[in-house]
Design a protein that fits this description.
binds nicotinamide-adenine-dinucleotide, 12 strands, five-stranded parallel beta sheet, 13 helices
């Protein structure tokens, strides 16, 4: 499979042939690099080799020949692995861990050559681990944070950024501490908040939990993530995560206090509006689908009768109008004779689509226009 990125004539080594390591290896092979693979788990190594992600390295010493070695092991092992490789004479060592400050500190404390070390973190991934879920296109058009130390050589950064380009990603340079503080807000605290929100359901019967709407499902989508990996990430980024969690929950605690304090309705109204307006403002800052700039999207709500083929009929009517659907959700409460399809389209198509659907006998109304 081609990554459609630049050709890259390099010898690359990947230590850790799990989800991220094998994805990088596959992308590097597709870009023209020769890839050596190493993993402590022989089954994972063999699986990655069978996926044509590279050839197995006979041992860690063999990696010294590589122009660049990528450490893609669990976060708590990154520092030790990077130090071992640097001390064994490996030319340039990078890693891909979701935390940067701790591994960089481990390398600094060891006295290993920092000129050949440069951390990195591709902002792409999955909730599943292992080489079976690897994908050479995982990093395409995504940001990849590159964290040089103050003594990392310019040539080292250039090789790491060549890898980023070969994977089809966009390098974003940042200090390790800045990265960790930012990711605590963008990723680490959100993971914990999603887990806490889903955990609040425990104790409900399945029958009652089944009444949850799409709001609960959407806000807890990442709650199935891997606890092993996340325990390591959170433990390695203690203070920034604590600050981000406090920032996220402070308005909620304030609101709970107000609700319990018998405050006037106008005060509650104002507090809720402020929180929700701030929420909208924060969400508008987020990139849209696949990391692209946010686009405005308009909703159209349509009543869909509970009969076989109704949704297909609706989609055919939309297709006949030549309208491109950005998204589609169907709300269907148990026992109801109909559901509501929530269509997301370009704002310019919203009114025309509502009119066309009504003309075909559908009950349709225009909804909000939001950033997607
Ligand atoms: N999963 C994601 O979405 C994601 C996204 C961005 C970055 N990361 C980072 O990528 C790294 C790898 O995560 P993953 O999801 O690919 O995990 P994974 O469990 O799929 O793969 C990790 C691999 O490392 C191997 N390994 C462990 N210790 C080793 C050692 N000392 N030497 C050689 N191999 C060793 C394991 O056998 C395993 O195959 C982590 O540091 C993680 O923070 C993950």
């Amino acid at each position: 499979m081609s990554t459609e990125g630049p050709r890259w004539d390099a010898q690359v080594a990947v230590v850790g042939t799990g989800l991220v390591g094998t994805s990088i290896a596959l992308a590097a092979v597709a870009a023209g690099a020769r890839v050596l693979l190493y993993d402590v788990d022989p089954d994972r190594l063999a699986f990655a080799v069978d996926r044509a992600a590279g050839v197995p390295a006979p041992g860690l010493a063999a990696l010294a020949a590589a122009d660049l070695t990528v450490v893609a092991v669990p976060p708590e092992r990154v520092g030790a692995a990077a130090v071992e490789l640097l001390n064994a004479g490996t030319s340039v060592v990078t890693h891909v861990a979701s935390v940067q400050h701790r591994p960089q500190g481990d390398v600094e404390a060891s006295g290993a050559d920092l000129a050949r070390f440069c951390g990195g973190h591709p902002i792409a991934g999955r909730e599943r681990s292992g080489p079976a879920h690897a994908d050479p296109g995982l990093f395409r058009d995504r940001a990849w944070v590159v964290c040089p130390t103050t003594t990392t050589a310019a040539g080292t950064v250039a090789v790491v950024e060549a890898l980023v380009a070969a994977c089809g990603a966009r390098p974003v340079r940042m200090g390790a501490a800045e990265h960790d503080a930012l990711l605590a807000r963008l990723s680490h605290a959100p993971q914990l908040v999603a887990s806490a929100l889903s955990a609040s359901l425990v104790g409900l019967t399945g029958e009652l939990a089944a009444l949850a709407g799409s709001g609960m499902r959407d806000t807890t989508r990442i709650a199935d993530s891997e606890p092993d990996l996340w325990a390591q990430i959170i433990e390695s980024n203690r203070e920034p995560v604590a600050a981000a969690l406090q920032g996220a929950i402070a308005p909620l605690i304030g609101l709970a206090d107000l609700l319990r304090a018998d405050a006037p309705a106008a005060d509650v109204d104002l507090a809720v509006r402020r929180l929700m307006e701030a929420g909208r403002a924060g969400r508008a800052l987020l990139p849209g689908k696949h990391g692209r700039a946010p686009v405005q999207a308009a909703e159209v709500h349509v009543v869909v009768p509970d009969r076989p083929g109704a949704l297909a009929d609706l989609l055919r009517t939309i297709a006949d109008r030549g309208v491109n659907l950005e998204d589609l959700r169907v709300e269907h409460a148990p026992g109801q004779p109909s559901g509501v399809a929530e269509l997301v389209v370009a704002p310019a198509s919203q009114q025309a689509l509502v009119s066309a659907l009504r003309a075909h006998g559908w009950s349709a109304v225009a909804g909000d226009v939001t950033a997607l």
